[in-house]
Write a structure and sequence with these properties.
The structure is a single chain. The protein has strands at residues 5-10, 19-24, 27-34, 37-42, 57-59, 62-64, 71-73, 88-89, 91-94, 97-101. The protein has one domain (2-101): Rieske Iron-sulfur Protein. The strands form three sheets. Strands 2-3-4-8 form a four-stranded antiparallel beta sheet, with no helix packed on it. A hairpin with a 6-residue loop joins β6 (62-64) and β7. The chain is globular and about 35 Å long. It is mainly beta. The chain starts with a strand and ends in an 8-residue tail after the last strand. Helices cover 0% and strands 42% of the residues.
């Protein structure tokens, strides 16, 4: 797909309010379908770097880490306090397929 979007799955593979884990180019990604909108975020909780966000509980527009209880907004990746949290990836839907754009983190030395 154009603009470096990568096909990740079909929309019918995702269940409402349930996460699904994917590994793309060595990047852990969690996909969620909430009210028929699809969100892609980092699957790694920044608290103890656990790869479990996909297994989190959905509350409104937030995913709650199942191990530590930290909450992250699915649209922004931020915590309710506004503090940084999860990387958010752009999502496109085309012909029933989900595409995401992996964003590489730039190191600032």
């Amino acid at each position: 797909m154009e603009n470096n979007f990568i096909e990740i799955c079909r929309t019918d593979e995702l269940k409402e309010n349930r996460g699904k884990r994917f590994i793309l180019e060595n990047t852990e990604v969690a996909l969620f379908k909430v009210r028929d909108e699809i969100f892609a975020v980092s699957n790694i909780c920044p608290h103890q770097h656990s790869k479990i966000i996909y297994d989190g509980i959905i509350e409104d527009e937030f995913v709650v880490c199942p191990a530590h209880g930290w909450m992250f907004n699915l649209k922004t990746g931020k915590q309710p306090t506004g503090a940084a949290g999860l990387q958010v990836y752009p999502v496109k839907i085309l012909n029933g397929k989900v595409f995401i754009k992996l964003l590489k983190k730039e190191l600032k030395w």
